[in-house]
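Morning!

This is the sequence you dropped in the shared folder:
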Amino acid sequence: MAPVIVLHVEDDPSLREFVGLAFENLGFQGEILKAASVAQGLEIIRLQSEKGRPLDLIIVDMNLPDGKGIEIVNQVKRNPAWTGIPTLMLSSETDATTVAEAYALGANCFLPKNPSHGNLLDVVESLYHFWLEQAIRAKPESTDPMRELLGQTLGYKAQMSQAYLRMAKMFTKTINHAEFFLNLSLSQSNHANLIAFLRNPNQGHSVPDGLSREMRQNLSDKRTCLLRVEGSIERAAEPSIEDAYRWCLELEKDFNPDVLRAALCYCVPNAAAGVRVFKKSVAGYLAALSNQILSESRNSENRAAAGTLQSRAITLLH
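The structure's back. Tokens below.
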């Protein structure tokens, strides 16, 4: 297999060097191309495509000398020849509007340079392990819109895992609650691993336009919801366990088992074992979430929402 090629668009040379050294220390043996502006980044993408050596991953800063990094995201996702390249934003500008715009344009993941928990090295290590060791382990032979959608779902699952991890840290004094949220975080990581496996090249069927639109809208709605929950987590000084349960239920309020079953049927028809495991994993996660809330919550709205979610989890397996 050809070596993995990464493009890092960042105008701070010390940060470009930092990321390169961190990748090298983590065992990266591919090639990192560097650009300091929007124009340079787009030119490298174009040249690599013309040479028949397309990029495997793009990492982009938001604020660049000649414009916004989001312009690169927009260009990549609008070009049929480039749209399958996972494109990540690594930026110090993390307000909700900016993040929402990046995702709306098709960014696969948005990572902070200055995370509220941990440091930049932690972010870079997570980026490396998630995207270089899992998401692009098998390089696609051709552009596939559904593979691209699965790639965006990988980024969403990574964010979900982080959201649950933050909830766990809020309740470290209550061991059973911290353990509950940690298990939810691990579930999202497991889902991401399974999606990465299912995302490998396959002989999938052509997805009907209606289902494709529904899948994309569903993911967009979930991202918007996740942004709201992340904002609530950020603002909460001393949240109650009922607050956390409400956040969890909000994240899954739009879960539709019919859409998920149809998506799996069309996207990965030849990976029956992986699909079964994925469906069981999702159903198990939803059941654990709803059962916990039904057994502990005294809030009628939380209990009603948990009951609905429990029914949908059961439906997924039938």
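Headline: Residues 209-235 form the longest helix (27 residues).

More detail when I'm at my desk.
O.
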